[in-house]
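Because discrete structure vocabularies remain unfamiliar, it helps to consider an illustrative case, giving the amino acid sequence and backbone structure tokens:
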Amino acid sequence: MSNNAKKLNMLLISACFLLPVLLAYIVLKMGWFNPSSTNKGELLSPLRSHHLAIHSTEKKWLVMYQVPEVCNQQCQNNLYVMQQTHTALGKNQDRVSTVAINASSQLVQGSHLLGISVADISKLSFMHDSPQALYIADPMGNVMMRYQISEDKQQAIMAARDLLKDLNKMLKLSKVG
């Protein structure tokens, strides 16, 4: 083999290793790659605290919903999603509490819902952005995800599936709660 052939082989082998690295660098610097996330809900940034003192839910994950004074179809879907999600958690049910928060003195009754009345709604300022949404809070009191539930029953069921996937993923990765 001649000296030129050896140099060409060495150049081709080097290009096989350097070319992918160079292309990856260019793709990242030019913004052609869109990193994706696997969560289905809306991640709240920055994290917000809920400041609720609920003794029966200490060290538990919370799925929270603020029930309006008049419970319309979307409200009914939210309560249904909360109940079904809690049931579908299976062995993780004891790690999660579903909380229906009501501003009035009436508490929401449901099979797995913990109804609480909050006279000072200002403690729940994070809910003012989307009052008809479900929220997930970790055991440290940080509200981290929001889920918009539709008035359509089928879309609400699909949203419940997304909520369940995210909740199971967080419970699997969490050592707390």
In short: Residues 1-35 form one domain.
